[in-house]
Amino acid sequence: MIATLLSLGVLAGLVLIGVGARALWRGQGDRLKAGLMVGAGVVVLVNVWLYALPVPGR
Fold this sequence. Notes:
By secondary structure, the protein is an all-alpha fold. The protein has two helices and no strands.
C-alpha cells in the first residue's frame, strides 16, 4: 500500500514539474503560477524521498 502511494506521489511531482516547466518555456499563462507548480513538484518529490528513507536505529 505504501509503495503505491509513494509511486503516485512521484508521478504527481513529475507531472507538476513537467507541466510547470512547459508553461514557463512556452510563456503560456501566468509565470508565477507556472513557477509555483515547479516548486510544488520539487516539494512533493523531496517529501517522498524523505518518507522513503530508512528509519535510523531500526
